[in-house]
Amino acid sequence: MLNLEKSAAAFAEAKTLMPGGVNSPVRSYASVGSTPPFIGRAEGSKIYDIDGNGYIDYVGSWGPMVVGHAHPRVVKALQEAAARGTSYGAPTLIESELAKLIMQVYPSMERIRMVNSGTEATMSALRLARGYTGREKIVKFIGCYHGHSDSLLVNAGSGMATFGTPSSPGVTRGTAADTIAVPYNDEAAIESVMERCGSEVAAVIVEPVAGNMGLVLPRQGYLRRLRELTEEHGALLIFDEVMCGFRASLGGAQAAYGITPDLTCLGKIIGGGLPVAAYGGRRDIMQRISPEGPVYQAGTLSGNPLAMTAGLETLRIITEEPEEGEADYSRQLTIRTKKLLLGWQEKAKKAGVVIQAHQAGSMFGIFFHEHEVWNYDDASASDQEAFKVWFHAMLEQGIYLAPSQFETLFLSGAHTDEDVERTIEAAEQGFKAVAEMGK
Ligand code: KE4
User: Domain spanning 72-319: which CATH class is it, in words?
Assistant: First the structure.
């Protein structure tokens, strides 16, 4: 049994200060019903709680830590940057440096605007799409998460083309009415919606590789169909690559699947652990953004020099030319992730537990489900009790996984072959615990 005494005391105090004792809900461990370890430090692939427990970390701060925690080059660059001041509220060279590097990897982003969170990036991209097209409706997909701006906290209304209903109190019916939510990976559903109200749709926003219902991949041809339908109806296609950017492949899902969106949202990795996100895309669209155009968007700490530094150093590391004959950084992560998943699949089979194992580059995840998982309904039908048992059995063995079935796991450049071997070995006990449930 893990000793989490200090974490429990810290959690009790935190709950007297912040809602649920956390600054973001998933960290509360509510869905796995246990005390969240309070973290004191992290280095490389490891994370350490204040009770002295160490773990191999596959959450990676929900994606940003692609080069591992406290990478020496990132830390050094940050120390030097901090000594030059932490924020000026004025243009700096490093903002252009980071913009150039991102645009080299994402050529569809002909212009880019830095913001401070994925929520801001998608919220701004939607406002821009509405400003550019003069239309008001947006289409999103059930199970895809794009941050917590009102237009995007909307469930599917009853029936396909009726408009959304708020998925959170505080979102007005009026706002929700302008959002249509349809099932992911269902061509007929999006075709029907676009047939009926495509001329009113400003944008279709999608996680091209979905990471917020667990990891769910687009069906063959699905993203191509979204591109065709949006072009046909004059709506913009927005790829929310906040999570899958630099993960599904170095160039994200748009490179992996060969689809060019009109706008792209990025986040997480481009800040290297500090608050950075961005939106960008076609020049004729981005020119509508203030101060060049009439669509307003601003931010006190947007392009913050410290955050830019962490992001730039991180991206420099993952975009470096590999040694002669070596695979590049992203390819190496993909290979190592595949090895881990294959090991988990072997251990699950040995324990007689049926899982669906999904991978997209260095993103991965499993479902305790007899059948394939292609959308939110499938993901929701997976065995949540089995997930909880698995999660705790792995945490007890020092493997730090996301505390929710509806999240995705991430591998970093700091994860060694030994880490992967240990994680595969731990899965033997993890799946055995699931197999013994209810016996
Ligand atoms: P933030 O506002 O949390 O920086 O980004 C929102 C966002 C936008 N788009 C995608 C595809 C995302 O995955 C996210 C945020 N991801 C979650 C993890 N599922 C962040 C973790 C959290 O909410 O604490």
Answer: alpha beta
* Cα of 93 from ligand 1 centre, angstroms: 28
Nearest CA to ligand 1 atom 5: 118
Element (H, E) at 385: helix 384-396
Q: Tens of pLDDT along 113-158?
A: 999 999 999 999 999 999 999 999 999 999 999 999 999 999 876 5
List the Cα angle 229/234/238 in 5-degree steps: 70
- Residue extents of the structural domains in the chain: 5-70+327-435, 72-319
| Residues shown for the chain | 439
Site to substitute for ligand 1 among 39, 58, 119, 149, most atoms within 8 A of C-beta: 119
Question: Which run of H or E residues covers position 227?
Answer: helix 222-233
Dist. CA 266–CA 238, nearest whole Å: 11
pTM, 2 dp: 0.98
At 369 the three-state DSSP class reads: coil
User: For residue 439, what pLDDT is reported?
Assistant: 75
User: CATH top-level class for 5-70+327-435?
Assistant: alpha beta
In 35-136, DSSP assigns E strands to: 39-43, 46-49, 54-57, 111-115
For the chain, list residues with pLDDT below 70: 157-163
